Amino acid sequence: MNRWVKIILIITLFAYIGFWANKKFISNLPHAVGKPIDTFNGVVVYYNGKISHVSGRNLTADNYNLGLRYQCVEFVKRYYYEFLKHKMPDPYGHAKDFYDKTVSDGQKNGKRGLFQYSNPSLTKPSIHDLVIFAGHVGNSFGHVAIISNVNEHEIEIVQQNPGIYGNSRERFPLIFQNGFWKINHERILGWLRKND
């Protein structure tokens, strides 16, 4: 067979596989983008579909930037704004940027106006804390969620934009060892807290 015919057949095959995969796995979303799928203390969690999907920026009536609509950052900032009445001094940045590696455990994170705790920390995680995840190959921007429940052995988070088939609630083991609390997940950098 001619070399060019082989190249065209290979390109056609990859195009067909891509079209099929898009239709099968991405077009058949379990919910419509923007559909409410959960609430935490009266603040709605919306479905976003693909992690990378963007539906424009969400601003409050007083022009405070909540973030890109239906992304994880938008939910946690909206929760802190509506329920905890907190505005972050720096209203921009990706999820992983919420954790400032130059801030020591228990010290104030000036960009977020919140106290920062490393994973592991001397301080136990608490309900309403923001949990920050490092980026990874599939999502270089990281992830951020809110702790919705805590006991001696695990935490529960509530999150927006966990992926097409992800859940708005997820649980992780909590370990207390040698005086330190650790959320047992390899990508969790730490947590942030509003202390009043």
Radius of gyration: 20 Å
Percent of sequence in beta strands: 25-35%
How is the biggest beta sheet arranged?
A: 8 strands, antiparallel
Low-confidence stretches: none
* Cα distance spanning the termini: 74 Å
Shape, principal axes of CA atoms: globular
Order of helices and strands, N to C?
Answer: HEEEEHEEEEEEEE
* Average predicted local confidence, pLDDT: 93
The total strand number stands at 12
Quaternary organization: single chain
Number of helices: 2
The secondary-structure class comes to alpha+beta
Helix percent reads 10-25%
Main sheet strand line-up: 5-6-12-7-8-9-10-11
Compact summary:
With 196 residues, the chain is an alpha+beta fold. It is built from two helices and twelve strands.
Topology of helices and strands:
Layout: H1 3-26, E1 36-40, E2 43-46, E3 57-59, E4 65-68, H2 72-82, E5 107-109, E6 114-118, E7 130-133, E8 143-150, E9 154-158, E10 169-177, E11 180-183, E12 188-193
Antiparallel strand pairs: 1-2, 3-4, 5-6, 6-12, 7-8, 7-12, 8-9, 9-10, 10-11
